[in-house]
Amino acid sequence: MALEDALELARCLRDLGGVEEAFRTFELLRREQVEKIVEYSRSIGQRKHAKNPVQVFFRDLMLPFFLKQANHQSPEWLYDYRVNWNDKVTV
Questions:
Q1: CA within 20 to 30 Å of 82's CA: 27, 31, 45, 55, which one?
Q2: CB under 8 Å to 20, separation ≥6 — which residues?
Q3: What residues make up the domain containing 29?
């Protein structure tokens, strides 16, 4: 995400009139993707948070299975974000 942010911010600074406008536009361009990632991360974190000993036992028992499945069901949207450097940023 840091590299995506850096590229988008560089595009905004390159194409827009001032720094304030560039940052405002940058935030608008990145907000949807960042909010999706935050929500996705929150859902993953909640699944790992088990305190009940029975839940902990079954989580640890099933974890290897879920990790194997995760490799096959990778969320492409998370890794497939593309910044087209040649496109001009417009407001």
A1: 45
A2: none
A3: 2-79
The tokens for 77 are 């949207």
- Only one residue has tokens 């999706």, namely 36
8: exposed, middle or buried (C-beta count within 10 Å: 0-12, 13-18, 19+)? Answer: buried
Candidates 56, 50, 1, 48; CA nearest to 29 is: 1
60 in a structural domain: yes
**Dist. CA 12–CA 6, nearest whole Å:** 10
49-65 confidence digits (pLDDT tens)? 667 788 788 878 877 87
CA dihedral sign of residues 60, 64, 77, 8: positive
Total structural domains within the chain: 1
Gap between the Cα atoms of 11 and 16, Å rounded: 8
Is this model's pTM higher than 0.70 or not? no
Give domain status of residue 84, yes or no: no
Alpha-carbon torsion, ordered 29, 31, 33, 36, to 10 deg: -160
